[in-house]
Amino acid sequence: MAAANEDEGDIAAGSERPPLIVSACLVGLRTRLDGRARSFPQVLTLASRYCLIPVCPEQLGGSPTPRPPAEIRQGAGEDVWDGRARVVTAEGDDLTEAYLRGAMEVLGVARLSGATAAVLKARSPSCGVGTTYDGTFSHRLRPGSGVTAALLAREGLELLTEENCGALSACSDPGDGQGSG
Ligand code: SF4
């Protein structure tokens, strides 16, 4: 086992468990839109094999908690990075810059920790992997990831959600997808 201070540039140095980025709302932190805590046992159990690094890109981008829901209009996270879509609230407030800022902060954490994989909250406009709400605030889904997930995917991280994290460790019981950012 390496000494904890062997590499000061790697905050996970010294751990026998590889670093794993996780959406903070999956592990009981009060980052959800409604400010309430909820944890997902299938994610918590990963702590036996991984050094979990909880992040909330919306909080890191400067959004308050609680906060109003937002969705990606006219695209998904990939389109936001390419300038073709925006993140807006139902009232029309444009939160795109905050979402981009938060995603960059999460990427910074991933690089600092050396994480090569992340378990992110399904369907969130920030954290959703492969599917997000379609921007109409009507619970309809569309293909494409959230803003943070799209960035991490472009940077080569392996992405899973609470619904398929069994690829990392045995798990079941998918969550409801409600109340997260
Ligand atoms: S899903 Fe929302 S509340 Fe959960 S970590 Fe991502 S941005 Fe934060």
The ligands found in this model are: iron/sulfur cluster
The tally of strands reads: 8
The radius of gyration computed from the alpha-carbon positions, rounded to a whole number of angstroms, is: 16 Å
**Computed structural class:** alpha/beta
The biggest sheet, with number of strands, parallel, antiparallel or mixed sense and barrel status, is:
4 strands, parallel
- Unreliable residue runs: 1-9, 170-177
Approximately what portion of the residues adopt beta-strand conformation? Answer: 15-25%
Mean pLDDT: 90
The ordered H/E elements are EHEHEHEHEEEHE
Global shape: globular
Helix fraction by DSSP (H/I, runs of at least 4): 10-25%
Span of the ends, CA to CA: 37 Å
Number of domains: 1
Number of helices: 5
Arrangement of strands in the largest sheet: 2-1-5-8
Describe the protein:
Helix 4 (96-113) crosses helix 5. Strands 2-1-5-8 form a four-stranded parallel sheet. Strands 3-4 form a two-stranded antiparallel sheet. The protein has a two-stranded antiparallel ribbon with strand order 6-7. The protein contains five helices and eight strands. The radius of gyration is 16 Å and the shape is globular. It is 22% helix and 18% strand. The chain has one domain. It has 181 residues and is of the alpha/beta class. It has helices at residues 41-44, 57-60, 77-81, 96-113, 147-154, and strands at residues 19-23, 51-55, 70-73, 86-89, 117-120, 131-133, 141-143, 158-161. Residues 1-9 and 170-177 have low confidence and may be disordered. The chain binds iron/sulfur cluster. The site of iron/sulfur cluster (SF4) has 14 residues, from helix 2.
